[in-house]
């Protein structure tokens, strides 16, 4: 069934289809519609879940940890400052190996106050141990939430589904809604590895000496690395059932491309249009959408840019005093394997500045020619900053 | 380089000792380094601290794996920590405690020195008897055995570092310097190395995915610190233990709380057949030690007893056992009546003989203000009915009667108050000097009346009832030897041993109202001679704390500073986590029902 939906509504719908049993969230623009919708769904009795109202995002995540430890399917959603406020407990959720799924609406961090799209909020949580997935359209929001539960519960790791503020949260698009029966077949009830049990009391996250601690972290790292293949496998299974693919990395006309533009989130669609235009102009261009940032799909990226001589990265974020966060990630992952590259890191579209097809074509032109509007600062190019 | 490791308990000052030692060596020109190993921040948990001393700059960091000297500030740690771990062969262990007899023995090729650190600390006013502060004391001993540390430098470092009492601390160290002695001067080869504690997880494959642990972890255990251990036992509350008849008062009040007044009456009658009489005449020692007195006023047990007695209790008069014996009780005063009652309840065929035309003996002479004759009458009627006593009133009580009775009865018991009517020695066949509780002569049982009970004092009515019950018990035991019948429990025999069976109240059934609203009637508002109505009795019953019996008020749990008390399914409702309990005794102090007591159990 096709229906016109905003990203927030699609996420709420996916949570209902996933039969989440516990939802706790604190409203924040532009996530507010999502939790309002969920509380309505639960209030109308369309979903058998406990909705816990809390006073902050920190408590939202803390209560999700408690609920998840109790063995139920758990959901929360936040954005920007709210995600930052969760930071400490994000580590806890991942360290406890809890399959919590969270939707984050990517919004700029304050100050100055800004409600619009920016990826610094979630990318600055990349070391918390959460799987991070970035959606490129409203359909992907709904699909990836369902996939996320399968991955989270199999890997025993929490998953953060990211959607661009307003470009997805408040943008209505027609999406295909699966039947509940089909979803139930794809996503069976949760079977937690371990849970709170009054008959068999346990302490979770107890004190632990340095030798065991380090080995525990090593194990978590290995399990996190495995998530790339696990997501791929489950996304393939989803694709076979629902005919829609949400892979960890998505290449577009990149096989023979000498120039590859890399981006995340909704910019990926715009980039694809720019690639088509560049191809028309005879440029052997392709693009890569990194839908997964943690674990970082290094292997997939290396094969996608095997032929490239130029790599253009568009960061909707920045690490002050260094450069765009994706640019650092991509460079680090290529260092061992591919150094004969011209690397161009653009910082663009932060704080809700639109990334346009013309803009992307212009970035490519500047990358190749060395001439253009973007300001070069160190190794990054800042697009559309005031003169 | 010398590596020194300190073992202590959180709060003992092991870390400070390591710093002082490093300062002293530093003042002597050595290169030094001192650092603690932080585990759990928990008072009493095992902690370690380290000192490196060298003639060259020290650049290495981290735990000293092979110390040459180990200093133990609290030898009770030997039960839980392997203080010899990594210690060099021929290395030295310095202990705080001279006699190691009650400690785990230290084995291995080590020298052991010791000083009675606790006594020296107390001598200089350092710490308390329970927790002497021995860190500077042990350093004085260290200076002697280490032979490269000057006592003067050490004392200077102590004075500069301790937060209080610098002079006493330095003097204590000086004293320990002279007092330390070698327990084992030469290393001895190990008979058997202590097995290293097996690690729960040995390899990567055994790692759990979810970081979870069962039971307690080793890091913060403090149970070996304890020298007094809390023990929870349900015991007789002061009301019951003060009652001469031993009535199960908390159970009776509990039955009232549950609205089961007949059960309350049955419980009362199991120990006292005349509750309506004792409820008016007795001086109610039950209320003297009532724990509720600590909060406001004692429970009005006497009035509750009257309330309970006022129910007619038309239950079955089926005796609780069968005994073929025929018993004659001479005298129908409270002693004779009670004695006849318990024998009748236990199945004997009882005839109660009295000179008067109605039963009651001395009770009949009381003024109606003390006890309403109507109540007295109904109490005695109930007694007679429930025990199937055959009343033979208006008989002439003399020694001829006794002779006559002997042919028809297996035992003749004479109420001590009736003996006045029988002239001793009048009848040659009777020897009135010989019969007592243990000596029944020729079927005749002449119980002795304790001095303080004569002449008859109405306020001591419960004593007469108890005596009657005991006489019945003795008589029944005498008959049971012959007939193997069930003995009657005695109210006072248990007292002699100081042991009484705990009252088996089910904690889950107990309902209490600790602080009823001010409008609730107080005992003082209950008239001394009135019978409380149902509402008043219920409200009064709810004031009862059911003490002696744990009723899960959870005062102990909420006051335990170490979270070492848990709810449990045993009869007292709580259990203690002895791996962590430090024996502080707060639970025993806080327990409003005296269920928890501190005992000397290691």
The major sheet of chain B is characterized as: 7 strands, mixed
Query: Proportion of β residues of chain B?
Result: 5-15%
State the fourth-level CATH superfamily of the largest domain in chain A.
Answer: Thiamin diphosphate (ThDP)-binding fold, Pyr/PP domains
Order of helices and strands of chain A: EHEHEHEHEHEHEEHEHEEHEEHEHEHEE
Instruction: Give the neighbour order of strands across the main sheet of chain B.
Output: 2-3-1-4-5-6-7
Question: How many discrete structural domains of chain A?
Answer: 2
Which secondary-structure class do the elements of chain B indicate? Answer: alpha/beta
How many helical stretches of chain A? 12
CATH topology of the largest domain in chain A: Rossmann fold
Which segments of chain B are poorly predicted (pLDDT under 50) over 5 or more consecutive residues? 190-195, 425-429, 490-505, 513-521
Could you tell me the number of beta strands of chain A?
A: 17
Please give the radius of gyration of chain B in angstroms.
Answer: 36 Å
How are strands sequenced across the largest beta sheet of chain A? 3-2-4-5-7-6-13
CATH level-1 class of one domain in chain B:
Alpha Beta
**Separation, N- and C-terminal Cα atoms of chain B:** 40 Å
Q: What distinguishing features does this structure have?
A:
heterodimer, A: 387 residues, alpha/beta, Rossmann fold, 7-stranded mixed β-sheet, 17 strands, globular, B: 602 residues, Pyruvate-ferredoxin Oxidoreductase, domain 3, FAD/NAD(P)-binding domain, 30% helix
How would you summarize the topology of this molecule?
The complex is a heterodimer of chains A (387) and B (602).
Chain A: E1 2-5, H1 7-17, E2 22-25, H2 32-43, E3 50-53, H3 57-69, E4 74-79, H4 80-95, E5 101-106, H5 120-123, E6 131-134, H6 138-155, E7 159-164, E8 173-176, H7 180-186, E9 202-204, H8 210-242, E10 249-252, E11 259-263, H9 267-280, E12 285-290, E13 292-294, H10 298-304, E14 310-315, H11 325-334, E15 342-347, H12 357-369, E16 375-377, E17 380-382
Parallel strand pairs in A: 2-3, 2-4, 4-5, 5-7, 6-7, 11-12, 11-14, 14-15, 15-17
Antiparallel strand pairs in A: 1-8, 6-13, 10-12, 16-17
Helix pairs in contact in A: 1-2, 1-6, 3-4, 6-8, 9-12
Chain B: E1 2-9, H1 14-27, E2 31-37, E3 46-54, E4 69-72, E5 92-95, E6 111-114, H2 117-123, H3 135-146, H4 151-161, H5 166-179, E7 181-184, E8 212-214, E9 229-232, H6 238-242, H7 249-257, H8 261-269, H9 275-281, H10 301-309, E10 326-330, H11 334-345, E11 349-354, H12 373-387, E12 390-393, H13 399-408, E13 411-414, E14 444-445, H14 461-483, H15 493-497, H16 534-541, H17 555-559, E15 565-567, E16 574-576, H18 586-590, E17 596-599
Parallel strand pairs in B: 1-4, 4-5, 5-6, 10-11, 10-13, 11-12, 13-14
Antiparallel strand pairs in B: 1-3, 2-3, 6-7, 9-17, 15-16
């Amino acid at each position: 069934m096709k229906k016109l939906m905003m990203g927030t509504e699609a996420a709420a719908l996916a949570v209902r289809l996933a039969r989440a049993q516990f939802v706790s969230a604190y409203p924040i623009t532009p996530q507010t519609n999502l939790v309002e919708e969920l509380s309505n769904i639960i209030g109308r009795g369309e979903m058998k879940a406990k909705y816990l109202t809390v006073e902050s995002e920190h408590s939202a995540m803390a209560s999700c940890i408690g609920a998840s430890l109790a063995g139920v399917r758990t959901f929360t959603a936040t954005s920007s400052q709210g995600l930052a406020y969760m930071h400490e407990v994000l580590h806890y959720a991942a360290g406890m190996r809890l399959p919590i799924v969270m939707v984050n609406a990517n919004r700029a961090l304050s100050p100055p106050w800004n409600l619009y799209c920016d990826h610094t909020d979630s990318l600055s949580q990349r070391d918390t141990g959460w799987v991070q997935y970035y959606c490129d359209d409203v359909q992907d929001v709904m699909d990836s939430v369902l996939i996320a539960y399968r991955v989270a519960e199999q890997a025993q790791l929490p998953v953060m589904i990211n959607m661009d503020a307003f470009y997805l949260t408040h943008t209505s698009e027609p999406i295909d809604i699966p039947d509940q029966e089909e979803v139930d077949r794809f996503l069976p009830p949760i079977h937690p590895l371990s849970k709170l049990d009054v008959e068999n009391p346990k302490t979770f996250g107890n004190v632990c000496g340095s030798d065991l601690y380090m080995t525990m972290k090593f194990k978590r790292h290995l399990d996190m690395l495995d998530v790339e293949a696990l997501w791929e496998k489950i996304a393939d299974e989803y694709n076979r059932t629902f005919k829609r693919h949400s892979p960890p990395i998505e290449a577009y006309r990149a096989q023979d491309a000498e120039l590859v533009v890399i981006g995340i989130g909704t910019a990926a669609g715009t980039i694809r249009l720019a690639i088509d235009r560049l191809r028309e102009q005879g440029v052997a261009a392709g693009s890569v959408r990194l839908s997964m940032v943690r674990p970082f799909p290094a292997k997939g990226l290396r094969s996608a840019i095997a032929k490239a001589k130029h790599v253009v990265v568009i960061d909707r974020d920045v690490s002050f005093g260094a450069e765009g966060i994706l640019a650092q990630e991509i460079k680090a992952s290529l260092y061992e394997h591919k150094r004969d590259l011209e690397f161009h890191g653009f910082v663009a579209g932060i704080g809700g500045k639109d990334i346009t097809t013309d803009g992307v074509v212009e970035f490519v032109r500047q990358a190749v020619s060395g001439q253009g509007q973007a300001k070069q600062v160190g190794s990054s190019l800042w697009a559309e900053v005031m003169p | 380089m010398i590596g020194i490791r300190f073992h202590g308990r959180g709060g003992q000052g092991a870390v400070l000792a390591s710093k002082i030692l490093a300062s002293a060596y530093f003042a002597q020109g050595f290169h030094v380094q001192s650092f603690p190993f932080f585990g759990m921040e928990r008072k009493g948990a095992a902690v370690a601290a380290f000192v490196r001393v060298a003639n060259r700059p020290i650049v290495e960091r981290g735990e000293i794996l092979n110390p040459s000297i180990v200093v133990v500030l609290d030898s009770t740690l030997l039960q839980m920590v392997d203080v010899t771990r990594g210690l060099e062969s021929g290395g030295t262990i310095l202990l705080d405690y001279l006699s190691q007899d009650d400690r785990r023995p230290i084995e291995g090729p080590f020298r052991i020195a010791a000083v009675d650190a606790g006594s020296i600390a107390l001598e200089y006013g350092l710490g308390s008897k329970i927790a002497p502060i021995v860190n500077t004391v042990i350093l004085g001993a260290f200076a002697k055995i280490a032979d490269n540390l000057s006592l003067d430098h050490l004392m200077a470092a102590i004075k500069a570092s301790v937060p209080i009492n610098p002079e006493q601390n330095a003097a204590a160290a000086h004293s320990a310097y002279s007092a330390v002695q070698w327990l084992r001067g030469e290393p001895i080869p190990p008979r058997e190395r202590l097995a290293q504690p097996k690690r729960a997880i040995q390899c990567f494959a055994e790692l759990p995915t979810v970081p979870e642990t069962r039971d307690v972890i080793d890091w913060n255990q403090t149970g070996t610190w304890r020298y007094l251990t809390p023990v929870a036992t349900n015991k007789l509350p002061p009301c019951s233990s003060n009652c001469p008849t031993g009535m199960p008062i908390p159970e009776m009040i509990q039955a009232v709380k549950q609205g089961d007044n007949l059960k309350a009456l049955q419980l009362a009658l199991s120990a006292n057949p005349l509750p309506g009489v004792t409820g008016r005449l007795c001086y109610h020692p039950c209320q003297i030690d009532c724990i509720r007195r600590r909060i406001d006023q004692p429970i009005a047990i006497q009035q509750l007893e009257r309330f309970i007695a006022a129910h007619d209790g038309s239950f079955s008069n089926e005796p609780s056992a069968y005994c073929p014996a025929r018993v004659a009780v001479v005298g129908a005063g409270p002693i004779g009546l009670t004695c006849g009652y318990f024998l009748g309840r236990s199945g004997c065929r009882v005839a109660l003989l009295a000179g008067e035309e109605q039963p009651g003996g001395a009770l009949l002479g009381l003024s109606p203000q003390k006890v309403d004759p109507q109540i007295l009458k109904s109490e005695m009627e109930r007694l007679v009915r429930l025990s199937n006593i055959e009343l033979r009133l208006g008989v002439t009580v003399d020694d001829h009667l006794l002779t006559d009775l002997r042919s028809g009865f297996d035992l003749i018991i004479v109420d001590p108050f009736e003996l006045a009517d029988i002239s001793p020695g009048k009848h040659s066949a009777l020897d009135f000097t010989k019969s007592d509780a243990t000596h029944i002569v020729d079927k005749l049982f002449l119980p002795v009346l304790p001095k303080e009970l004569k002449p008859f004092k109405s306020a001591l009515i419960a004593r007469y009832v108890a005596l009657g019950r005991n006489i019945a018990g003795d008589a029944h035991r005498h008959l049971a030897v012959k007939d193997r019948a069930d003995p009657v429990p005695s109210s006072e025999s248990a007292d002699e041993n100081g042991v009484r069976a705990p009252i088996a109240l089910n904690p889950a059934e107990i309902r209490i109202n600790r602080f009823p609203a001010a409008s609730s009637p107080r005992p003082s508002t209950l008239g001394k001679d009135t019978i409380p109505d149902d509402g008043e009795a219920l409200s009064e019953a709810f004031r009862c704390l059911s003490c002696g019996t744990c009723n899960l008020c959870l005062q102990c749990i909420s006051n335990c500073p170490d979270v070492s008390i848990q709810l449990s399914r045993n009869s007292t409702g709580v259990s203690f986590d002895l791996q962590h309990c430090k024996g502080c005794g707060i639970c025993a102090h806080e327990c409003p029902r005296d269920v928890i007591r501190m005992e000397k159990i290691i």
